[in-house]
Every structure is written in structure tokens, then in C-alpha cells.
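Why does residue order matter? Because the sequence determines the fold. Keep that principle in mind as you read this record.
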Amino acid sequence: MPTKYIKKGYQKTKYIIYKETLIDFREQFWSFIGSFVGIGILAYLQSQTLPDSDVLFLIGSFGASSVLIYGIIQSPLAQPRNLIGGHVISAIVGVTVAKFIPDIIWLTAALSVSLSIILMQLTKTLHPPGGATALIAVTGSSHIKSLGYWYVISPVLSGVLILLFVALIVNNVTEHRSYPSNNRFHRNYHNFRKRINQKK
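Structure:
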């Protein structure tokens, strides 16, 4: 019995290493297009609506989200539920902490990120960039802090919806990519095993 599990673990590891060493230029091309268009739209909105103010539409956590939703679209952390829920929950937490403990930066920073992680875990919306969204709410400029709970609506929710809209289009243009894609890894793994077994 233990040998069976070891063999299965070895096959999974072999598959992961095999997939990671492949260079798929189609994947890279569509990752580039998706992130370029998604972030480009947000940057354009920023330049047209708020050219002389803080960069409100381009919060740093959107860059990290782009890596997930355009670069590793099969990851459970990159799925729409995680993208939207993770950012929105974290933004609410960040703003709330900033309102109740406004002047103790070490406490607000640590508390906002930690509470965001716990709530994302509880709601099954874990999205790593959400931690940055919470952190920006408590460490951002005075303009961002003055938004209060409007920060949750814009830039967070509005920006996330734009990124998601682009991801749903770009990630489904070809048959090689599918988004949302919760089970893609498992399908690929089983197809890989079938090919290995056929060669034996």
C-alpha cells in the first residue's frame, strides 16, 4: 500500500516538473495580451479621469492578480470567485481596520493582512493579492484613505471586474486555454498518464 502512494506521488511530481519545463509560446503570448489589455484599460481610465491625482485605479495588487488570472489561469487561486471575493473582502477589512485603529501603523498593517487571510480562507476566496489590497487601504496615501468604503467599490471592485472581463475573453480565445478552469490540471494529468501507459 505505501509503495502505491509513493509511486502515485512520484508520477504527480514527474508530471508537474514535465509541465514546468515546457515552453509554450502560445501560453506566453496570450498571457502577455491579457495582462497588457487588462492593465492598459485601467491605466487609460486613470489617465482620462484622474490625470492629476493619485493613481487610484492602478493599485499594486492588480499587478499580482494579473499574474494569476492571465499567467496561471488553471490555479484555484486565479478563479473568478477568488479574484472578486479575495479583493473585496480584503478591501472591506483594510478600510474597517483603518477606521478603528487609524494611527498605529504597525498594528493596522499586520491586523488588516492577517484578518484578510482568515476571512478569505473561511469564505474559500483565497487570493494572495488580496493581502496587498488590505495593506494599501491602511498604508496608502491620504487620498486613498479619504475614500473610506468607496475604496471597496472603486478602485477595487471596478478594477477587478475589468480584469475579469478581459480574462474571460482572452483566456477563452483558443482551445488551448479555458477559464474558469478548476479541473484543467486534473484532466491534463490523467491525459498525461494515459500517454505514458500507452507507451509501455
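The first helix runs from residue 2 to 21.
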